[in-house]
Amino acid sequence: MKWFPTIVLAAALTVLFGLPFREYDTAQLLPIRTLQVEKTEAGLHILSDAGEGVGKTWSDAVENLRQNASGDVFFDTAERIVFCGGVSPRAAVESGDLRPAAQVYFAAAPYEEENFNDYFAEHPSSLSVAELRARYA
User: Fold this and answer.
1) Dihedral, 105, 107, 112, 116 alpha carbons, nearest 10
2) Dist CA 38 CA 35 (whole Å)
3) Cβ neighbours around 47 below 10 Å, total
4) pTM here?
5) Hey, which of 74, 83, 91, 116 has its CA 20 to 30 A from 18?
6) Rounded CA gap, 103 and 121, in Å?
7) Which residues does 66 contact at the CB level (< 8 Å), separation at least 6?
8) Which whole-number Å values give the CA distances from 33 to 4, 7, 10, 49, in the listed order?
9) pLDDT tens, position by position, for the chain (137 residues)?
10) How many C-beta atoms surround the C-beta of residue 73 within 10 A?
11) Could you write out the three-class secondary structure of the chain?
């Protein structure tokens, strides 16, 4: 019973100020279906439905992608991530940017066909971001 005032105060503050969630303008959201990460001489090159980003590290490339995009890049919708050219997925999967259920693929080079999302939908991967995180832990 002594916790009752604390619970009432927490509920009142939540009603007054709202929950601490980031607000998005849905018109500005750029959902990603597939990310392709390629190793280049400059570092990493990220190709996505929302645009491209380059940087020496995963975080630099993600930040560059967010800056170059015409809206808010929404990584939580990524269904698959393709690591190309010997890129190590460790920094990407440990960053927390990617959704745990996203499927992970490895390829020699990025796919350039327009229908590669359909190809991946027909050929699901047995490896997910969550499984890779667990392996690296």
Assistant:
1) -30
2) 10
3) 19
4) 0.76
5) 74
6) 10
7) 53, 72, 73
8) 45, 41, 38, 7
9) 677 777 777 777 666 666 665 665 555 677 888 899 999 988 999 998 888 999 999 999 999 999 998 888 888 889 999 999 889 999 999 999 999 999 999 999 888 877 778 888 888 999 999 999 999 98
10) 25
11) CCCHHHHHHHHHHHHHHCCCCCCCCHHHEEECCEEEEEEECCEEEEEECCEEEEECCHHHHHHHHHHHCCCEEEHHHCCEEEEECCCCCHHHHHCCCCCCCCEEEEECCCCCCCCHHHHHHHCCCCCEHHHHHHHHC
How many Å separate Cα 115 from the centre of its chain? 21
Matching residue, tokens 């991967």: 125
Tell me the backbone φ, ψ of residue 22, rounded to 5 degrees. -70, 135
CA 107, CA 87: separation in Å to the nearest integer? 10
The CA-to-CA distance between both ends of the chain, in Å, stands at 41
Contact 135, 111 (CB under 8 A): no
